[in-house]
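Try this one yourself first.
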């Protein structure tokens, strides 16, 4: 018992010692930074040794009691270019005292807030403790006092810089809201990127005055000029590609590529020139910049994706179109398998390029940080909308990939679709392009080839059993037709196995009987020609036999229904 109590006392003493050491380190770190955290009984602020702003701790020429008051009074002072008064809103603690230029920093910060930072006035709290009274109870920050508030952000080359407000208090002073010391420290670097360009600085002061909204007069004039420069570059690109296309043979590979990239390259010329002119000469600001930046990015990404996909599509179509006859050859299963798999891989690459482009667009344009996007995403609305809108397209894409890898219908296969004999020319994302025997093109949805059955005549063996059916009189002598049929199948060049040929009576009714003549052909093309010749030959034989049917005892070969009716009519007339 004695050692147990000693062990417990020793453990308690060790914990107390560790907590004391941690507290000492925290106090030392706070002292080095010049800031401490207020206790529970004090306002929720950053406590500083001295308020280092342009006005000093003794004066507050601006309304710094709330974030809303800070922004309103700062922007009003900036509009009047009263930088000495507006400088009270800047915490200069992180700026070297020997290099401080408060008025210059204040002017630069005002320019950034006026032209480049998109913040929502409605979300700025008008309370000293910055409690958000507009949010719902589900928000984890609902009813929570804040001493730091992020109102916007700007992108530098390697990081995102937040624009933050902080609530600070000096000894003996009142708590005030100011632009945080980290934000003020980053102002020169941000101004170098988002501030006026050399071209803008060289313009007359009258053109740099505000016209309306947040636009200066020079921006009102520059915007149509930028659009004109982009349109001119697009027109020249379009004409140049058109001239190159006219110099090429329409069956050449280069002609197909130029035709495919014609419109995407024109779009890229417009968007690229638009972006280059803006970056070099005209640095637009405010809502116009917020609107043009994502639009410009969308156009550039769409053009690049369009060029990449068009080139892939053109090269694949050129390769398959140059080998159409070879692909349709009966024994060319290897090439049909290869091009069908390449078609599936092409579609997979296309989907990957599209997804990569969309992902890059979302990341680069920072769309996910917008208020509307966040609300829809948090509620799941955006996902439901996208899934509902794309369910048919995604289903068709998966069906086309399924067809290509399962090879139920390969490029070059002969199939029977909707009662027509066709060749598969192309397997697309949402449709198959079929070429009929008479050179027509059918566009069939891919879902028809995964949900419904169809005939594939070249899946395993290209040879086909062709058949001809003739309706003959019930008195016809079928045996008299078998020898002419046997002579045909043994002498026709397209019949591959005369032993499989058959002549059979397959149906009969009171009017006539149906006789079927069957013979095997090497492939559908040869089979169709043989099928027609077989019908002609057997009709000729039946006609020759039928011509002697009136001489007894020769039987009739074609139904005599019409002649019998005519004879009965004549007999009735004679009796009448």
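Now uncover the answer:
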């Amino acid at each position: 018992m004695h050692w147990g109590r000693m062990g417990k006392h020793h453990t308690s003493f060790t914990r107390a010692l560790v907590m004391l050491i941690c507290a000492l380190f925290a106090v030392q770190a706070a002292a080095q930074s010049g800031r401490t955290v207020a206790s529970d009984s004090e306002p929720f602020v950053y406590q500083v040794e001295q308020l280092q702003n342009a006005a000093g701790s003794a004066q507050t020429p601006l309304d710094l009691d709330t974030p809303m008051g800070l922004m309103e009074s700062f922007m009003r002072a900036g509009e009047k270019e009263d930088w000495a008064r507006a400088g009270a809103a800047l915490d200069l603690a992180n700026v070297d005292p020997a290099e401080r230029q408060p008025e210059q920093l204040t002017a630069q910060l005002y320019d950034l807030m006026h032209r480049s930072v998109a913040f929502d006035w409605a979300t700025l709290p008008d309370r000293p403790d910055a409690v958000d009274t507009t949010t719902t109870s589900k928000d984890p920050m609902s009813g929570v006092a804040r001493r730091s508030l992020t109102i916007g952000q700007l992108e530098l080359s390697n990081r995102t810089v937040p624009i933050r407000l902080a609530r600070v208090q000096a000894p003996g002073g009142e708590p005030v809201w100011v632009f945080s010391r980290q934000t003020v420290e980053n102002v020169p670097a941000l101004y170098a990127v988002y501030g006026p360009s050399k071209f803008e600085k060289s313009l007359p002061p009258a053109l740099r005055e505000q016209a309306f909204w947040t636009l200066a007069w020079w921006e009102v004039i520059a915007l149509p000029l930028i659009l004109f420069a982009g349109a001119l570059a697009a027109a020249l690109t379009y004409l140049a590609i058109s001239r190159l296309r006219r110099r090429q043979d329409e069956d050449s590979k280069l002609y197909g590529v130029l035709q495919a990239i014609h419109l995407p390259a024109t779009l890229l010329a417009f968007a690229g020139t638009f972006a280059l002119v803006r970056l070099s000469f005209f640095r637009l600001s405010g809502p116009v910049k917020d609107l043009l930046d994502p639009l410009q990015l969308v156009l550039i990404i769409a053009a690049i994706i369009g060029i990449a996909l068009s080139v892939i599509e053109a090269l694949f179509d050129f390769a398959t179109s140059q080998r159409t006859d070879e692909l349709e050859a009966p024994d060319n299963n290897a090439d049909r398998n290869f091009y069908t798999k390449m078609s599936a891989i092409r579609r997979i690459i296309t989907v990957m390029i599209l997804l990569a482009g969309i992902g890059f667009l979302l990341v680069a344009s920072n769309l996910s940080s917008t208020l509307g996007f966040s609300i829809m995403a948090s509620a799941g609305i955006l996902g439901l909308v996208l899934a509902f809108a794309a369910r048919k397209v995604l289903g068709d894409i998966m069906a086309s990939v399924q067809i290509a890898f399962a090879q139920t219908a390969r490029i070059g296969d002969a199939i029977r679709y909707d009662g027509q004999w066709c060749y598969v020319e192309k397997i697309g994302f949402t449709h198959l392009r079929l070429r009929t025997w008479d050179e027509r093109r059918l566009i069939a949805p891919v879902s028809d080839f995964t949900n419904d059955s169809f005939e594939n005549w070249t899946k395993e063996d290209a040879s086909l059993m062709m058949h001809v059916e003739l309706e003959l009189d019930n008195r016809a002598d079928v045996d008299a037709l078998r020898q002419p049929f046997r002579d045909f199948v043994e002498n026709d060049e397209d019949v591959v196995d005369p032993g499989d040929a058959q002549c059979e009576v397959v149906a009969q009714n009171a009017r006539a009987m149906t006789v079927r003549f069957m013979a095997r052909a090497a492939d559908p093309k040869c089979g169709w020609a043989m099928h027609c010749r077989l019908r002609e030959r057997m009709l000729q034989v039946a006609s020759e036999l039928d011509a002697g049917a009136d001489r007894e005892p020769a039987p009739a070969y074609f139904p005599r229904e019409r002649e019998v009716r005519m004879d009965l009519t004549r007999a009735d007339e004679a009796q009448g």
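Discussion: The chain has 17 helices and 15 strands. The two ends are 142 Å apart (CA to CA).
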